[in-house]
């Protein structure tokens, strides 16, 4: 629906770590059901953008909106913080983040990992959460791994468990930060398949990836970041098929 506001709207975002300016005015939208990929060299600000989006990092200037609701701030510049802790919690629980390093809790079984946040953060009913957790683990192809610990799984299985954990929060959108970068090539594909399935079922996602084939296959829109600014963006066919910027052409030839 064209009259719905985007699930995620980042407008003119500026972020510095002390004196280091990392984002210099970045605007990105994720309409409902769309997949946005963020590409760019190491250090270009991709992870920072996702972390600011999730309010894991403060930003100094610019707006963030979720389903049209603007984040309210207090203070300005380096003193700017979100004003409303309840709003922060609401936004964060609606954006599940999947990290390169899985970040599963080593002392919990896979099922406990997936159930933990819905139980403790959302305070949902245990039996319902368990049924949902088992269903999501099935969906990512590791329904038989409920009772084992993360160390007993391959990297690809651990990452799929992390995706099930994100899904079990029933988020409005998923944020992926290099979800396949820590995996051996043969394990990468099992995670890519899960991400493709999620895209096909109309999930709203923002994906930071070094995998240009994944970005080309799943994205509605691709954003190329260079030194904290959007250097080029567009539909994957145009961006990968006919890149306009010299920097993007250089980046793409270096990643193939
Ligand atoms: P990317 O994900 O595109 O590789 P990042 O967003 O991780 O880029 O980093 C962008 C820049 O910000 C880099 O120069 C990095 O060293 C710096 N940076 C990232 N996180 C921090 C931090 N917590 N403190 C200081 N500098 C940081
Ligand atoms: Mg990064």
TrEMBL record:
Residues passing through the membrane, by range: none
Location(s) in or outside the cell: Cell membrane
Keywords carried by this UniProt record: ATP-binding, Cell membrane, Membrane, Nucleotide-binding, Transport
Gene Ontology molecular-function annotations: ATP binding
Domain of life the protein comes from: Bacteria
Family: Belongs to the ABC transporter superfamily.
Protein name, per record: Amino acid ABC transporter ATP-binding protein, PAAT family
Annotated SUPFAM superfamilies: P-loop containing nucleoside triphosphate hydrolases
Bilayer topology: Peripheral membrane protein
Record organism: Sulfitobacter litoralis
Domain ABC transporter: residue ranges: 8-252
Stored InterPro entries: AAA+_ATPase, ABC_ATPase_HisP-typ, ABC_transporter-like_ATP-bd, ABC_transporter-like_CS, MetN_ABC_transporter-like, P-loop_NTPase
PANTHER family: AMINO ACID IMPORT ATP-BINDING PROTEIN (PTHR43166), L-CYSTINE IMPORT ATP-BINDING PROTEIN TCYN (PTHR43166:SF35)
Family annotation (Pfam families): ABC_tran (PF00005)
């Amino acid at each position: 629906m064209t009259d719905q506001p985007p699930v995620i709207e980042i407008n003119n975002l500026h972020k510095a770590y002390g004196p280091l300016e990392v984002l210099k005015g970045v605007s990105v939208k994720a309409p409902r059901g769309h997949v946005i990929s963020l590409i760019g060299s190491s250090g270009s600000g991709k992870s920072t953008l996702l972390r600011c989006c999730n309010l894991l990092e403060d930003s100094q200037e610019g707006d963030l909106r979720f389903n049209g609701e603007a984040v309210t701030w207090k203070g300005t510049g380096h003193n700017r913080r979100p004003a409303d802790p309840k709003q922060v919690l609401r936004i964060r629980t609606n954006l599940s983040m999947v990290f390169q390093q899985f970040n599963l809790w080593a002392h919990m079984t896979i099922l406990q990992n997936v159930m933990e946040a819905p139980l403790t953060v959302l305070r949902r009913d245990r039996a319902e959460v368990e049924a949902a957790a088992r269903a999501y683990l099935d969906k990512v192809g590791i329904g038989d791994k409920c009772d084992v610990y993360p160390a007993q799984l391959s990297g690809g299985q651990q990452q799929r468990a992390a995706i099930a954990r994100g899904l079990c929060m029933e988020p409005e959108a998923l944020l992926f930060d290099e979800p396949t970068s820590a995996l051996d090539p043969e394990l990468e594909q099992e995670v890519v398949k899960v991400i493709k399935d999620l895209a096909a079922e109309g999930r709203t996602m923002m994906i930071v990836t070094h995998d240009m084939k994944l970005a080309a296959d799943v994205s509605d829109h691709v954003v190329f970041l260079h030194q904290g600014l959007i250097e080029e963006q567009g539909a994957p066919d145009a961006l990968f098929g006919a890149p306009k910027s010299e920097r993007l052409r250089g980046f793409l030839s270096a990643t193939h």
